[in-house]
TrEMBL record:
SUPFAM superfamilies: MetI-like
Entry-linked PROSITE patterns: ABC_TM1
A GO cellular component entry from the record: plasma membrane
Family note: Belongs to the binding-protein-dependent transport system permease family.
Species annotation: Undibacterium terreum
Protein name: sn-glycerol-3-phosphate transport system permease protein UgpA
Amino acid sequence: MEKRARFRSAWLPYLLVAPQIIVTIVFFFWPAVQALYQSMLLQDAFGMSTDFVWFDNFKALFADPSYLASFQTTALFSVLVAFLGLAISLVLAVFADRIVRGATLYKTFLILPYAVSPVVVGVLWMFLLNPTLGVVAHALRHMGIEWNNLLNGRHAMILIVLAAVWKQISYNFLFFLAGLQAIPKSLIEAAAIDGAGPVRRFATIVFPLLSPTSFFLLVVNIVYSFFDTFAIVEATTQGGPGKDTEILVFKVFNDGFKGGDLGSAAAQSVILMSIVIILTVVQFKYVEKKVQYS
């Protein structure tokens, strides 16, 4: 017999969800509306007056080669962060799931990086890969690799990708480990008895059962690479050398707060938000079709 919770007061359900609704309106919908309105304004050089210019800020952006270049930079950065972050986290989770002795210690060490702030992560990797003082850069030099992220755009991109992936690995690891532990061991044991090797068991049993977790983490990592990596870029490369690591979210800050072009920065925010929404919808519409929910 189906049981349902019934509220005696008709207003109580609305009262219970009111805090979440208020937070969503105040911190999401209202700023989004403000950004959309600001994106259609043009300020003078001193910020004393504004003109309503409709979609001129958007037209100027898509005619700007540097803004179009930041699209390519962001696309490359987000793909690398999402792919490497998920792949490395999954491998670590698989190995951690098999460890019996000292499992808690290993898992604790793998979770710790998530507690570190993005700014600290950026500074840490900046010192590790500093061309003159960095330990990792010194080791690379002994291997015949002349590392210099201050002058080489590819090296700078590798630096921010490594920092962003390292920061996100713990989050991905937690979900993958929980997903692995939820898989019935009897299925894996039955496949082993039938003669399936470790690789085949993982490809035909483990990974399909992990597809809901993988899909969720794919969406989260794409959003992370677009929005939550600003502090890492600011602490390490500041968009340089040149504009080789100027991702979209950093360009919003650069043009709005450093350049003083608030209208253009607001337009970039609207475009960035639209891109993430579109990517999320596409993932839910097409990628989710291959997800197997048990």
